[in-house]
Amino acid sequence: MRPHGIGFLRPAAFLAPVVLIFVSARAQSQDAAAFFKQNCTSCHTIGGGRLVGPDLKGVAQRQPDRKWLVDFISDPNSKLDAGDPYAAKLLGEARGARMNKVAGINQTIADSLLVLIDAESRLAKSQFAGTQISDRPFTGQDIANGRNIFLGQTRLAAGGAACVSCHSIVGLRSLGGGRLGPDLTKAFERLGGRKGLATWLSAPPTLTMNPVFRNTPLDANAEILPLVAFFQDAAQRGGVADTSTSMFNFLLLGLGGTVVLLILFDLFWLKRFRAVRKPMLLGLDVGGHK
Ligand code: HEC
Ligand code: HEC
User: How far apart are CA 152 and CA 71, in angstroms?
Assistant: First the structure.
């Protein structure tokens, strides 16, 4: 039997360190998440597939040696250059792309990042899963849809500005693509292919693109997927065919389109007007009405 004298103290004495540990663990995991988001998500997802680097979901099962992982994250080059067989395998799977030492990293941060990766790996959907665009092969329809989105012929669901107002693509010059943003003919390769470009477009990190799309994000499967299909096609062909159909569609969009529509409407309306008026005016000359 334990003495009753200090019994009332025990819960408080016991809880205080638990609360402290809990609070500091929470703060630490938030720090780790912020650090991961800023320094790792451009190359890694957790459960969203490979980008430049491997999907980190379940990395602790692939490489059970914790010290190895901590060492690798805090200084990738030392492992990559040392002829370490596991590092060589990773390098091969990344087709030669190398992970560099991230600024500000140390063994303690690396360890807290691994705790975070473990926790996120257990979730059905990690906050670092990246954009989930479908893996199905692109179709000709996707490319056509992407082109329409790029040209602003299909409006962006969230109301973002049409890409063509700031960007051009080789072959679309006669459509007068904007000059504020870079030519996007090679964007597909430059931003890491299907996954990389999709992730990039889901939250563009750059100076102009970020504010333009922060509050009007693109829809993953309805917009990003077809845009990526369109950019892949453009990259493969070194540009896009500037067909007369697209010229016509573009004209319909712009001032030309407005005029054409007005004329069509006018003709239609006049015809109806005459059809109604003729019997009413009984022989009066309506031909002069313009
Ligand atoms: C520039 C892209 C890039 C960045 C940024 C990057 N990595 Fe990597 N990472 C890679 C590549 C590529 C590999 C595969 C090894 C290689 O080829 O260098 C890799 C491998 C890894 C591995 C081993 C994966 C496995 O399957 O065993 C871990 C763990 C890892 N990275 C964690 C991180 C963490 C944590 C960060 C952020 C602090 C980070 N990486 C930042 C590209 C990157
Ligand atoms: C208001 C002008 C504007 C609009 C609208 C716009 N962009 Fe951009 N975009 C830019 C600028 C400027 C850059 C250069 C980086 C920066 O400053 O953000 C850029 C960069 C990019 C890049 C990176 C290119 C590279 O090689 O690094 C991609 C990809 C891109 N935009 C795609 C799009 C898509 C897709 C749309 C339409 C959904 C779009 N942009 C709409 C101005 C715009």
Answer: 48
Nearest CA to ligand 2 atom 37: 163
Q: How many other CB atoms are found less than 10 A from the CB of residue 287?
A: 7
Is 94 near ligand 1, meaning CB less than 6 Å away?
Answer: yes
Q: Does any ligand 2 atom lie closer than 6 A to the CB of residue 209?
A: yes
- Structural contact between residues 213 and 204, judged by C-beta atoms closer than 8 angstroms: yes
Q: Is 170 in contact with 163 (CB distance < 8 Å)? A: no
- Residue 131: count other Cβ atoms within 10 Å of its Cβ: 22
CA of 188 to the centre of ligand 2 (A): 13
Pocket-testing residue among 38, 43, 86, ligand 1, by greatest number of atoms within 8 A of Cβ: 43
* Spatial separation of the C-alpha atoms in residues 144 and 134, rounded to whole Å: 17
Retrieve residue 73's tokens.
């994250």
Burial (CB < 10 A; 0-12, 13-18, 19+), residue 145, is buried
First to last CA, the chain: 109
The model's pLDDT over 33-56, given as tens digits with 9 standing for 90+, comes to 989 988 898 789 999 888 778 999
Residue 233 has what pLDDT?
95
Of 118, 212, 101, nearest in space to 159 by CA: 212
How far does Cα 160 stand from its chain's mean position? 14
28: its two tokens: 């630490």
